[in-house]
Design goal:
The chain is an alpha/beta fold. 36% of the residues lie in helices and 27% in strands. The chain has a domain of 141 residues: 3-Layer(aba) Sandwich (Rossmann fold), CATH 3.40.50.
Length: 241
């Protein structure tokens, strides 16, 4: 396994009076897709938001590319090369696709080569370039959400359930785009409930339960062991979609 680009050690996060993360230990290998799996409500989204700095860790440490980022504000983490795609997409619906992309490229104008890569991954965005994002379909909005973090070079992508509620054809487009990100050298930490996608994309996996990581290993190992899936998550990848 390659060296981790991201390492969480003993991370604890509180939201209001609730103790959500209860000592998370997680390593994300560089250049791989790591699946963060588990039942609803076990802390997966809170983990991503803590890494991004939307929630502050009460205890523990977060290291990115060898640097301690535990106390850094969210903008500094983004400048360091972390991109975040939230479950609610985070796009500006009253702005055009073009305006959304321009805002996402905080360091300067959109590079033509990077924009062409976005269009190659998500062809509908070229078609609707001048359209308001609020008029896009659900799948097209999700494409734009991922495209926005592709507007600048990122070393690590945190992506929260990108295929949720999407038609199979759109899911295939998403999966292909994520493969291309990985092929370009990016590392990805992906929360995903579609086990077919998880099995197809994941190199490694970490399973959460009750605010902790309870299992880590190769995605292929988890995908091949129905009994392990049942024990860790209460369902089998062969029956869940």
């Amino acid at each position: 396994m390659s060296e981790p680009i991201l390492q969480l050690t003993g991370v604890e996060t509180d939201i209001a009076q609730y103790h959500i993360l209860q000592g998370v230990d997680l390593a994300v290998p560089a250049g791989q897709v790591t699946m963060l799996l588990g039942r609803n409500g076990v802390g997966k989204t809170t983990t991503l938001k803590t890494i991004m700095g939307h929630w502050r860790a009460r205890a523990g440490a977060i290291r990115f590319a060898g640097e301690d980022i535990t106390a850094l504000p969210t903008p500094a983490r983004a400048r360091a090369g972390i991109g975040f795609v939230p479950e609610d997409m985070g796009i500006f619906t009253d702005l055009t696709v073009e305006e959304n992309m321009i805002l996402a490229a905080a360091s300067g104008p959109l590079e033509p080569a990077r924009l062409e890569a976005v269009f190659a991954a998500f062809p509908p965005l070229r078609t609707f370039w001048k359209s308001e994002a609020g008029n896009l379909s659900g799948g097209q909005k999700q494409m734009l959400s991922i495209a926005r973090v592709m507007a600048e070079e990122r070393r690590l992508y945190l992506i929260d359930e990108p295929t949720k509620g999407l038609a199979p054809a759109i899911v295939s487009t998403m999966a292909r785009a994520l493969r291309e990100l990985k092929a370009a050298g990016a590392s990805i930490l992906l929360v995903e409930q579609n086990f077919a996608v998880a099995r197809a994309l994941g190199d490694s996996a970490a399973v959460m339960d009750d605010g902790r990581i309870v299992w880590t290993g190769a995605m292929a190992e988890l995908a091949a062991d129905a009994a392990l899936q049942e024990r860790l998550m209460g369902l089998s990848m062969e029956t869940a979609r």
